[in-house]
């Protein structure tokens, strides 16, 4: 499952994994965890050579239960801090560094293994799992995505506005779509699903229908 930020990937992926009794992998959380580690260690996100030099150092541990996915770096639970503004503001720069991507793609393939799993990210259908049985590319209007993300963050009492979110998401999507290494792009064989006018249950139902049709 690929798509830009706020397209509803996380809720939809977890819902589909739960419905099918499958594992769930949030690859964005892995890029966020590496970014958190770099910031903790004083490595400048805007310095690709410095990021590349430390790319192999963070030790990640991910849990794949869709009811409670976990993420730790060097034994520290970072599920909370990786959603904060510092990491969100720096993650696109860190994830554009090829050494970081090579390392995390290998780690993601190791987690995926040979079993069934729902994986969400930006390059899953194109790079991480080009042979996936079902590929979905989720989109939604910029307006809908900004509203969803604002509600999500304010639910966590972060205090933000739709306008601020729209600008931040546009910046992150532009960086993610134009980077040289594995940019966000729809795989040729992915089914595009525009979630703007759909409820979460409708999105999940549509994906389950696709899974049934193709597996
Ligand atoms: O999905 P989420 O918004 O948490 O992802 C955070 C960032 O991680 C994205 O903006 C992108 O820069 C990076 N990412 C990536 N490839 C993935 C997943 C996420 O580059 N497969």
UniProtKB/TrEMBL annotation:
<keyword id="KW-0418">Kinase</keyword>
<feature type="binding site">
    <location>
        <begin position="3"/>
        <end position="11"/>
    </location>
    <ligand>
        <name>ATP</name>
    </ligand>
</feature>
<keyword id="KW-0067">ATP-binding</keyword>
<feature type="domain" description="Cytidylate kinase">
    <location>
        <begin position="1"/>
        <end position="212"/>
    </location>
</feature>
<dbReference type="InterPro" id="IPR027417">
    <property type="entry name" value="P-loop_NTPase"/>
</dbReference>
<protein>
    <recommendedName>
        <fullName>Cytidylate kinase</fullName>
        <ecNumber>2.7.4.25</ecNumber>
    </recommendedName>
</protein>
<keyword id="KW-0808">Transferase</keyword>
<dbReference type="InterPro" id="IPR003136">
    <property type="entry name" value="Cytidylate_kin"/>
</dbReference>
<dbReference type="GO" id="GO:0005737">
    <property type="term" value="C:cytoplasm"/>
</dbReference>
<dbReference type="GO" id="GO:0036431">
    <property type="term" value="F:dCMP kinase activity"/>
</dbReference>
<dbReference type="GO" id="GO:0036430">
    <property type="term" value="F:CMP kinase activity"/>
</dbReference>
<dbReference type="GO" id="GO:0006220">
    <property type="term" value="P:pyrimidine nucleotide metabolic process"/>
</dbReference>
<dbReference type="GO" id="GO:0005524">
    <property type="term" value="F:ATP binding"/>
</dbReference>
<keyword id="KW-0963">Cytoplasm</keyword>
<dbReference type="Pfam" id="PF02224">
    <property type="entry name" value="Cytidylate_kin"/>
</dbReference>
<feature type="region of interest" description="Disordered">
    <location>
        <begin position="153"/>
        <end position="174"/>
    </location>
</feature>
<keyword id="KW-0547">Nucleotide-binding</keyword>
<dbReference type="InterPro" id="IPR011994">
    <property type="entry name" value="Cytidylate_kinase_dom"/>
</dbReference>
<comment type="similarity">
    <text>Belongs to the cytidylate kinase family. Type 1 subfamily.</text>
</comment>
């Amino acid at each position: 499952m690929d798509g830009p930020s706020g397209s509803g990937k996380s809720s939809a992926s977890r819902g589909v994994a739960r419905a099918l009794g499958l594992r769930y992998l949030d690859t964005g959380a892995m890029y966020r965890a590496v970014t958190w580690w770099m910031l903790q260690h004083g490595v400048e996100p805007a310095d690709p050579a410095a990021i590349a030099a430390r790319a192999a150092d963070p030790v990640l541990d991910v849990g794949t239960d869709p009811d409670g996915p976990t993420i730790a770096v060097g034994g520290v639970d970072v599920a909370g801090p990786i959603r904060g503004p510092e990491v969100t503001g720096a993650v696109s720069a860190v994830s554009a560094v090829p050494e970081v991507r090579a390392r995390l793609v290998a780690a993601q393939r190791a987690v995926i293994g040979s079993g069934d799993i729902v994986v969400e990210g930006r390059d899953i259908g194109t790079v991480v799992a080009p042979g996936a049985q079902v590929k979905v590319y989720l989109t939604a209007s910029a307006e809908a995505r900004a509203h969803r993300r604002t509600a999500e963050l304010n639910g966590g009492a972060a205090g933000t506005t739709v306008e601020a979110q729209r600008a931040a998401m546009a910046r992150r999507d532009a960086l993610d779509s134009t980077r040289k290494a594995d940019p966000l792009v729809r795989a040729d064989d992915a089914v595009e699903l525009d979630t703007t006018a759909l409820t979460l249950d409708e999105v999940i139902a549509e994906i389950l229908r696709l899974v049934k049709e193709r597996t």
